[in-house]
Amino acid sequence: MFTGKGYHLVCPAKYRRVVMSKKVDEILRGTCLEIEKRWEIVFLEIGMEIPDTSGMDGDQAHFLMQSMPTYNPSQIVRTVKSLIEREVFEKVPEVKKMLWGGEFWGKGYFINTVGQHGGEEVIVAYVENQGRGNYQQLHKGQMNLDLF
After folding, report:
1. Is 93:34 a contact under the CB 8 Å cutoff?
2. Residue 119 within a domain
3. How far is CA 5 from CA 41, 116, 147, in A?
4. Considering only CA atoms, which of 52, 44, 59, 57 is closest in space to residue 8?
5. How far is C-alpha 49 from the chain's CA centre?
6. Does residue 53 lie within any of the structural domains?
7. How many domains does the chain have?
8. 3-state DSSP call for residue 136?
9. Distance between CA atoms of residues 7 and 45, nearest Å
10. Rg (CA), the chain
C-alpha cells in the first residue's frame, strides 16, 4: 500500500500507431530505470500492450509509479514522455519514420492517483488485464519508502 504519492499513467503512441516492439520496450524500460536514478520517481510497474495478429493493441504504455509529493502530475508526465521519446527516436530511427517524423507520444494521457485503501492492487490488476490478454510486464519494482 502506498504511503505517499502513487500514480497510474497511461500514454498512447501518436496516432495510436502500433510502434511498440521488443527493441522499443527495452529502450522504454531502460530509460525509466535511468529516470529513477536522476529524479525522485520510482517505477513500480511498467507494462505494454503486445501487438496482436490483427494489428490491434501495442499502442500504449502503462506506468505505475511513486514520486515525491513536491512533483505535480504534469511534471512527472512531461519528464517521462519527453525522455522516453528522445531515447526511442535516437536509438530506433525507423519509429520516427513510422510517425512521419513527429512525436512518439500522443498529446493526451491518463493519470490518476493510487489511493491508500487497496489502490495499488486494483491498479496492478487493471494494468495486467489491458490489451485483451496481450499485456507484457516490462518491469516490476518495489516501493521506496526512503522518498518520503
Report:
1. no
2. yes
3. 10, 10, 10
4. 44
5. 11
6. yes
7. 1
8. strand
9. 11
10. 15
Q: Give CA angle at 14 (12, 15), nearest 5°.
A: 105
- Enter the pTM of the model: 0.75
Per-residue pLDDT of 17-44, as tens digits, reads 667 778 888 998 999 999 999 998 999 8
Interatomic CA distance for residues 24 and 31, integer angstroms: 10
Q: Express each pLDDT in 44-53 by its tens digit.
A: 888 876 655 4
Per-residue pLDDT of 2-20, as tens digits, reads 445 888 899 888 776 667 7
Phi, psi angle pair for 118, to nearest 5°: 80, 10
Which CATH number characterizes residue 36's domain?
3.30.70.1290
Q: Which domain holds residue 87?
A: 5-140
Q: What angle do CA 7, 9, 14 make, to 5 degrees?
A: 165
Separation between Cα atoms, residue 55 and residue 58, nearest integer Å = 8
